[in-house]
């Protein structure tokens, strides 16, 4: 029987976290057929053994090995292998609420013209969170109402669902961007969504489709946060479709440097690392953006 929903989990060297994710999918309350495809993107740990344990217990789990390194390659492989008309993506370091799959199916039953939908995510952490760490990090929401995305709004990769025919029509995820092993790269989902919007496809946010996303221990450092800001800006040029005009952005850098100094002095943060993050994060995003424009 054809599944109603395909859940794709792309993974790389996170066997312990992957088990938490897959346990949350086993616990789904959806009483209709769905399948889970785990795409192993060249892992060197015991990822295959973790997935095998699930495939032996349930026939709706499938293991796929994708040798081409890159999250976009893995996501595209998952879509190509999907047996359902709906393809849901959840990160290997996330865990779904028990009604996640049911909420997805219910949403599309009521919104036949929507091409993609995403929901909020909350954070959880396997290590103690430092006092200075930004409390909003690792969470995302567009509110408590279901609605179409507005200008400049996007859904997030850890909790997004597409109609498979639209993915195929749009050429799926751009393999030149997105994480590659341990290499930071962002924005492949935003790049796809921007193209979908331009083609006239309807994209929604729905607050009932909820996952929890892990804040991994290595992210609990100021250095990693700032590196991530720069990487986001660097990929922002391609993600958001900006062309040229690097001299215009360069001319605005003194203003942004002044804003960074202003934030550092006047941000109401009791911890020095938090003040540095608030001040330098936006500046490093723009420096990364400018560096990519210069490279072009």
What attributes characterize this protein structure?
296 residues, Spore Coat Polysaccharide Biosynthesis Protein SpsA, Chain A, 2 domains, eight-stranded mixed β-sheet, three-stranded mixed β-sheet, 10 helices, 18% strand, globular
Descriptive report:
It is a single chain. By secondary structure, the protein is of the alpha/beta class. It has two domains: 5-217, Spore Coat Polysaccharide Biosynthesis Protein SpsA, Chain A (Alpha-Beta Complex), CATH 3.90.550; 222-295, no CATH class. Helices cover 43% and strands 18% of the residues. It has ten helices and eleven strands. The protein has helices at residues 15-26, 47-57, 71-81, 100-110, 164-170, 188-198, 222-240, 246-251, 253-266, 272-295; strands at 5-11, 34-40, 61-65, 86-90, 94-96, 114-118, 121-125, 147-148, 159-163, 202-205, 211-215. The strands form two sheets. The chain has an eight-stranded mixed β-sheet with strand order 3-2-1-4-9-6-10-8, sandwiched between helices. A three-stranded mixed β-sheet has the order 5-11-7. α1 links the parallel β1 and β2 (34-40). α7 (222-240) runs parallel beside α10 (272-295) and α9 (253-266) runs antiparallel to α10 (272-295). The longest helix is centred in the last third of the chain and has 24 residues, at 272-295. The radius of gyration is 20 Å and the shape is globular. The N and C termini lie far apart (49 Å). The model has no long low-confidence stretch (mean pLDDT 94).
């Amino acid at each position: 029987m054809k599944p109603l929903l395909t859940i794709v989990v792309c993974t790389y060297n996170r066997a312990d976290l992957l088990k938490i994710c897959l346990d949350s999918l086993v616990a789904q309350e959806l009483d209709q057929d769905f399948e889970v495809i785990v795409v192993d993107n060249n892992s060197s740990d015991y990822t295959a053994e973790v997935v095998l344990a699930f495939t032996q217990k349930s026939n709706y789990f499938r293991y796929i090995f994708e040798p081409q390194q890159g999250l976009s390659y893995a996501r595209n492989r998952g879509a190509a292998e999907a047996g359902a008309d709906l393809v849901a993506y959840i990160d290997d370091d996330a865990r779904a609420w028990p009604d996640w799959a049911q909420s997805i199916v219910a949403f599309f039953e009521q919104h036949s013209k929507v091409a993609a939908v995403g929901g909020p995510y909350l954070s959880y952490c396997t290590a103690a969170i430092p006092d200075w760490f930004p409390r909003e990090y690792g969470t995302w929401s567009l509110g408590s109402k279901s609605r179409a995305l507005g200008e400049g709004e996007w859904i997030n990769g850890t909790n997004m669902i597409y109609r498979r025919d639209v993915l195929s029509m749009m050429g799926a995820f751009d393999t030149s961007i997105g994480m590659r092993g341990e290499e930071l790269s962002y924005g492949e989902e935003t790049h796809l969504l921007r193209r979908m919007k331009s083609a006239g496809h309807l994209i929604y946010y729905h607050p009932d489709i909820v996952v929890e996303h892990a804040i991994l221990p290595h992210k609990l450092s100021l250095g990693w946060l700032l590196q991530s800001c720069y990487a986001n800006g660097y990929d922002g040029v391609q993600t958001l479709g900006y062309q040229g005009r690097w001299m215009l952005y360069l001319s605005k850098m003194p203003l942004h440097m002044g804003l960074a100094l202003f934030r550092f002095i006047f941000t109401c943060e009791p911890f020095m690392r938090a003040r540095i993050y608030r001040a330098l994060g936006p500046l490093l995003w723009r420096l990364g953006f400018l560096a990519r424009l210069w490279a072009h």
